[in-house]
Predict the 3D structure of the following.
Amino acid sequence: QVQLVESGGGLVQAGGSLRLSCAASGRTFDNYVIGWFRQAPGKEREFVASIRSIRWSGGTTYYADSVKGRFTISRDNAKNTVYLQMNSLKLEDTAVYYCAAKRDKVSMQYDYWGQGTQVTVSS
């Protein structure tokens, strides 16, 4: 069982930056792929970025095309935390951001989800 808690959301002007954190419970944090997803009002949830286990997959990262070059995902296994550094924020980045976890090399789908954190980008 993994419990996830997001933090770091807020209101920021376009062009600004925010860093989201996803803190996880459990002793086997590095067995999990951690992903960030977002959902804007009236839209479906979409993938933002993910990072694989360092031990099993070298910490490989993936990004949606819409955030490549602006967002960076990283993990600190000592703190059981994954970060999403968001730079050059755009109005269209406004959404509720969720982190999720799945077992690396085992699970096809994300089994654990956080409660979400709101990111609002203003002009």
